[in-house]
Amino acid sequence: MALAPPPGRLTRPRPPLPVLPLLPVLPLLPVLPVVAVVALLALPVAPGADGGAGPADALSALVVVACALRLLRARRRPLTPAAAVILGLPVAGLVPAALHAVQADAGITGLGRYLQVFVLVPAAVVLLLRDRADFRLLAWSFVALALWQGAVGVHQYVTGTGASYQGRDVRAVGTFGVADVMGMATVVSLGLVCAVGLALGRTAPRERAVALACALLLPVPLALSFSRGAWIATAVTLTAQLLLAGVRRAVRVAAAVLAAGVVLVGGLGVGTTMLRERIDSITRVADAPDQSVTDRYTMWAAALDMWRDRPLTGVGLKAFPEYRDAHASLALSSGSDTEGAGAAFRRQPLLSPHNMYLLVLGEQGLTGLLCLAGGWLALLVCALRGLCLTRAAGGRGLDCALVACGLLVWQLVDFAYADIGGPSTVLTAVSFGLAAWWALPAADRPAPADPRAAPPPRTAVRGEAAAR
């Protein structure tokens, strides 16, 4: 029995609860921490830093921990068995190499770094991204970071405040400084790959137009980075993306790029002398190599010699500097000179062979290389399979497929000229996560439908229609 209100007191209806302005953001909450990791790479690195872990690395560790706690609370199987094997495959080569490292603390540090870049952060990205909207948001964060770092790099070149190159402070390094001289080139290259993939997709025309405009702007700071390895990897990747999007489109774009190059370089004379010399040096690295190329070849030979001594397990994680002088020839210099971008002159020691495959081969042996590179090739095969299924099914999600395949191709080509290290390395981990999300569907997310599969029986369709 309901009680009547006291006499003399009128009842008023309760006002509706205010709609929170954060409600549109709630569906994006799982992916926002990963976007924040990318955004933290826009912060400047202190001049004279040793190029170690930065704020983005610390946040990536928190993202991994938060993702693990979320999985424990949900009590569900997050990955398919095949995805778990491919993502966890590098562990089989990392653990033995860490156990017989020259220094125990160096082995533990190296193990943590490899697990962060190639296992934990990619797995967290796979689990936090839920659909193609999250994928596109993270890809656009790559583009935004590339535009910011590229703008800083162009300003450094114009004002002469970049890193030292041929006696002039004109090398564009962005906010990474001389501690990570390849950082801006990596960021801009990955942003350019994402922009091209988004522009070649079948999303809204306005989104494709914005992506195309970004793709036309980013080659400028990439050229001013004077990074030959990033140039080669980007050229190979963009060619692969165009061919995967369609042969006819690739031919039209190649013709337009060739015509623009003839007009800009041949007709207007665009391009500085240093830039032209840097491009020419790519074709004569065997005839008249400079000291940087000589050092790189010498360290490659040293890494191969380490592998011959211990072919299965290598010399141990973080042990390349310890064995370098014993296996390198006298052609190796004592280090490289770094200066500019707010940092004083410093002799940077050569601590790696600047080739990821040879670094893994020398430190982890054939076991580590097969586990690590085998996982990368498996990701690439799965990503290409998903792209083929997407194209055959009508092209929905083609932009995500092109971005994922492009990021993988860029990393695999660039690793022939570079390795991990520096604050920008966390972006490599996130890019592997993006590619793995497309290539390895989670247990609760179905794989792309195979259009060759037989349709359901007509009687079942009629029954469903009758039920509706």
Unreliable runs: 17-23, 450-468
Number of strands: 4
Query: Mean pLDDT score, rounded?
Result: 81
**Spatial shape:** globular
Q: What does the largest sheet look like?
A: 2 strands, antiparallel
What share of the residues lie within helices?
55-70%
What is the end-to-end distance? 43 Å
The strands making up the biggest β-sheet line up spatially as 1-2
Radius of gyration from CA coordinates = 26 Å
- Order of secondary-structure elements: HHHHHHEEHHHHHHHHEEHHHH
Discrete helix count: 18
Q: What is the structural class? A: mainly alpha
**Approximate strand percentage:** under 5%
**Chain oligomer state:** single chain
Q: TL;DR of this structure?
A:
The chain is mainly alpha-helical and 468 residues long. It has helices at 32-40, 55-74, 81-88, 91-99, 104-128, 132-159, 183-200, 205-217, 219-224, 228-245, 247-267, 273-283, 291-309, 320-327, 356-392, 398-414, 425-439, 458-467; strands spanning 163-165, 168-171, 336-340, 343-348.
Explain this structure.
This protein has 468 residues and is mostly helical. 62% of the residues lie in helices and 4% in strands. It has a two-stranded antiparallel sheet. It has a two-stranded antiparallel sheet with strand order 3-4. It is globular and about 60 Å long. It starts with 31 loop residues before the first helix and ends with a helix.
